[in-house]
Amino acid sequence: MLGISCVWLVLAIAGVTQGADVALSNIPDVIYPPVAQAAMVSGDIHIQVEVRPDGSVAWASVLEPRARFDQLLAPSALDAARKASFTCRGCTEPLTSHLLMFAFELRGAEKTRTIVETATPGRTRIRVIADIPVCDHCGGGGTHQIQRTRTIKCLWLWRCGL
Fold first, then answer.
1. Can you spell out the DSSP letters for the chain?
2. Fewer CB within a 10 Å sphere, N or C end of the chain?
3. Is the dihedral of CA 87, 78, 35, 149 positive or negative?
4. What's the DSSP call for residue 141?
5. pLDDT of residue 57
6. Which domains, ranges and CATH numbers included, belong to the chain?
């Protein structure tokens, strides 16, 4: 009995309503940051949004970044999350929590595209797919092979698998 009371208290504090159904209805095109694309950075960004009963976003925040380079991707995801709109059914509280999971991927796409996938209630997965950068200075078809090189920090002091 005590465990159920604790769970109910946590849900009440978090602003999650029992039986509330929040669904993403519109999100602007997510921009893959050019710096991250040039550096070939990809990864997942989790954004917690608080949704008003009218479906607008009250506030959004980035949950703990997992990797060092996530800081390149987070501003773009946060901007899109703030501009998103939701459908809120059964929302009685002033704010209802929803998790947006942005997956930034580099593939052979002609242009950046956004794909929305509903994962579970209270969570939405958004895939942002961008083109792999190509070399403008290469001869031939404008493509090049990816070549691993040592960084200046390495200085050949230890084996790094190259």
1. -HHHHHHHHHHHHHTPPTT-EEEEEE-PPPPPPHHHHHTT--EEEEEEEEE-TTS-EEEEEE---SSTTHHHHHHHHHHHHHH-EEEEES--SS-EEEEEEEEEEEES-SS-EEEEEEEETTEEEEEEEEEPP--TT-SSSS---------TTTTTSS----
2. N
3. negative
4. S
5. 95
6. 19-131 (3.30.2420.10)
C-alpha–C-alpha distance, residues 138 and 142, integer Å: 6
Look up residue 72 and give its two tokens.
């390149």
pLDDT tens string 80-130: 999 999 998 888 899 999 999 999 999 876 777 888 887 678 899 999 989
* Dist CA 24 CA 6 (whole Å): 29
Our measurement of the distance from residue 93's CA atom to the centroid of its chain's CA atoms, rounded to an integer in Å, reads 26
β partners of residue 107: 131
- Three-class SS of residue 131? strand
pLDDT digits (tens, 9 = 90+) for 135-158: 555 554 555 455 555 555 555 555
Quickly state the pLDDT bin for 11 (edges 50, 70, 90): very low
Report the residue count for the chain: 162
